[in-house]
Amino acid sequence: MHGSALPPYLEYPGVGLCHISVNLSPNGEKNNGFDVLYHNMKYGQIASKNLMEFFRERASIEETHYKLITKLTKQAGPCNNGSFAPLWQVLKTSSEKLSSCYLQIVQRYQDLVKDVIKYCEEQHKKHKSVKDEEALTSEIVQTLQTTLANLTKTKETYNQRHIEYEKLKRENATIKEVEKAETRFKKSCEEYKSLVAKYANVKDQYEAKMTQSCKNFQVVEEAHLRQMKLFLENYADVLETGHSLIGQAYFEFRQQCTQMTVDHLLELFTQTKGTGSDRPGPIIFEEADGLSILTSTTLGQDLLEKETNGEKMTVKKEGFFRTSPRTRPISPPPPTIINVSEVDSPASADLSGHAADNGDVTPTDPNRSAFHSSKCKIPDKY
């Protein structure tokens, strides 16, 4: 029995960098190596789903960032006035480029999520086929565990019967009691030997099945780990590419801001908003020339209508509003102003005397006294 002691573990050197070890020691975890490998395979599927959710959440975060950047870009749109307008345009262009970078990142994350979802579906089918293939191994494991439990119990019974038998022999018990104890001892011994042989047979089957199962589980696990690492490499590539695009957008934004110097901004402002480069010429004072003014103004004659004393009359504009003789209103002649000093002058006296001699004016004219006033005006009514 001691010569057929169980190996502490079964190790299968894999084709990759790992080794799968299955604990077969009776003092171990009751030969749960198969369950460990099977549940590890199931944990792989859980890990795939969790990784998918992680990528999906990251894509959601980037999508939210994209929407916020797009909303922020619109705030730089209406600002097109003033000398700062070119920098607003630079800021808007940079924000649009940054928004485009985040959109590309979101699309790549979404593609990565689709790849993980597809892998999860394929992995589920693979695990189902592995479970069917390893059904016999699972049965052998259960048989081994049951046999080992019975063997342990039978061994304890065998040892107990042996102790009782030896005790009766030392105490000089009756022959009947000794024979009865001996019969029970031999029976337990036969059961114990039978279970040992059965366990040896089951153990051989278990090792053969477990060796093949370890190979199958290792192939599945290696493929799973390679695929999961590939997903992480793609994720790292998305991060690196995204940060590279964002960094390039930041670099171009800084470069454009550096190029937009104050002098350049002022030059752009004068080019777009300038009203002309010619300076206004000087204005020289010119003497008024009646003939030239009359000649120049008669070229733009037109008819004017106006109300005068409630009567409508047409006035032809000529020169500086010269009135045509046909339409010129008739006005009375200005009153004649006679200076008394001139009347009293010698010349006037001669004329008066000459008129008196001719009998035109009578010295005793009653109007003479009024004529000699300081000034005499002809009545308004002519």
What tags apply to this protein structure?
single chain; 382 residues; mainly alpha; Substrate Binding Domain Of Dnak, Chain:A, Domain 2; 2 domains; two-stranded antiparallel ribbon; two-stranded antiparallel sheet; 9 helices; rod-shaped; disordered N terminus
What does this structure look like?
The longest helix has 85 residues, at 175-259. A hairpin with a 5-residue loop joins strand 1 and strand 2 (19-23). The chain folds into 2 domains: 2-159 and 191-271, Substrate Binding Domain Of Dnak, Chain:A, Domain 2, CATH 1.20.1270.60; 336-359 and 368-382, no CATH class. The N and C termini lie far apart (172 Å). Helix 1 runs antiparallel to helix 2. The chain has 382 residues and is mainly alpha-helical. It has helices spanning 33-74, 85-133, 135-170, 175-259, 262-273, 290-297, 340-343, 346-358, 368-371, and strands at residues 9-13, 19-23, 303-308, 311-316, 337-339, 375-377.
Give a quick precis of the structure.
With 382 residues, the protein is mainly alpha-helical.
3D shape: rod-shaped
Q: What percentage of residues falls in helices of 4 or more residues?
A: 55-70%
How many β strands by DSSP? 6
Provide the β-strand percentage band. 5-15%
On the 0-100 scale, what is the average pLDDT?
A: 75
Chart the SSEs and their pairings.
Blueprint: E1 9-13, E2 19-23, H1 33-74, H2 85-133, H3 135-170, H4 175-259, H5 262-273, H6 290-297, E3 303-308, E4 311-316, E5 337-339, H7 340-343, H8 346-358, H9 368-371, E6 375-377
Antiparallel strand pairs: 1-2, 3-4, 5-6
